[in-house]
Amino acid sequence: MVEFELTGPRGDNPLGFLTALGALVTLEDAGWRPRLGWRGLRPRLQVNPDPPPETESESNEKRRQTLLSKLHTTLQRKPRRDEPADPSVSLDKNLTVLNEKFLLHTDEAMAQAQLRNRRWVDLAAAYGVGNPSDRVQRMLATPWALVSGSGSQDFLGSVEQLMVRCEIDHLKKALFGPWSPQDKLHSLRLDVHDDRRYALMDQDPTGSGNKPRTLWGANRLAFEALRLFPAMPHPSGMAVRAWRLDGGTWRKGCSVRWPLWEPQASAAVVGSLLGLPELWGKTSSDRIRLRELGVFTVYESRRIAVGEGGNLKYNLTPPVAVWRA
């Protein structure tokens, strides 16, 4: 086993948390049997490289390069003239299509699913739900989709660009830092710094010298992490792992909670942790259960709407720790 401390992402940032999860599921795709845990706010990633390191004394830098090369090879897609770069982004530019189109997309993903390759179907399950009895209404999209075409920002359209344009250096900055957003466009608005309300900034957010920047590598990995947050039909319309409605709607008025845990865990175990009802509990027995599972803190962020009309955008509020061991 080789262990990496990921010095770029932090667990108290939604984008940082999803970046670590994205690395976990991508390396599982690559057959490296990864495990993820946390030391404070920093993720620790254990892997079984294939092929293994040549020597025990192999330098950390060489091991990092091997890790980043494997991630880049697994994630990169080639541009295509007449077809999407990947089946997972073939639905449309945004998760705003009619139920009928979304259900056709999920049917195709299910038909292509294999025991050792569920990536497309798991992503389709994470996009939202479609009502088969009302095919001419719009699908219900996952609350993780914070962009939907307003302000010329597209969700799947941006992901497709990231699939083609994201290079090893982008992944290196995402995982090992510096976590300093410098990339233009293609933000999925998952970073705490994407909450650019005037009251939270020390300068005009619309000023010419204050244009938003992002981290392409972090956004690319975060997209892959969505597989761990499936959506499913519910009497209220939709339920999404780790999310709860709090008196509002899935467009605004919902919250997400995520744990940080110490023991190294596989992607399947992480998915189970994200779905724990105890994350939302308030009793001492809930806290005891979380501690028994190795969870030492739980964060929460709310989805809010900012702006109006064609400039309407969605943000995640700065997370707060709702519980610490």
The SS-based structural class is alpha+beta
Tell me roughly what share of residues is in helical segments.
Answer: 25-40%
Straight-line distance between termini = 29 Å
Radius of gyration: 19 Å
Q: What's the SSE pattern?
A: EHEEHHHEEHHHEEEEHHEEE
User: Ranges with pLDDT <50 over ≥5 residues?
Assistant: none
Total discrete domains: 1
Q: What is the general shape?
A: globular
Tell me about the largest β-sheet. Answer: 5 strands, antiparallel
Residue share in β-strands:
15-25%
- Give average pLDDT, whole number: 92
Number of helices: 9
Number of strands: 12
List keywords for this structure.
325 residues, alpha+beta, five-stranded antiparallel sheet, three-stranded antiparallel sheet, 17% strand, globular
Question: How is this structure best summarized?
Answer:
With 325 residues, the chain is α+β, with helices and mostly antiparallel strands. It has helices spanning 14-29, 60-75, 99-112, 119-127, 155-165, 168-176, 216-225, 267-274, 284-292; strands spanning 2-5, 35-39, 42-47, 128-129, 140-141, 231-232, 239-240, 243-245, 254-261, 295-306, 313-316, 320-324. The strands form four sheets. Strands 8, 9, 10, 11 and 12 form a five-stranded antiparallel β-sheet that branches. Strands 1-3-2 form a three-stranded antiparallel β-sheet, with helices on one face. Strands 4-5 form a two-stranded antiparallel sheet.
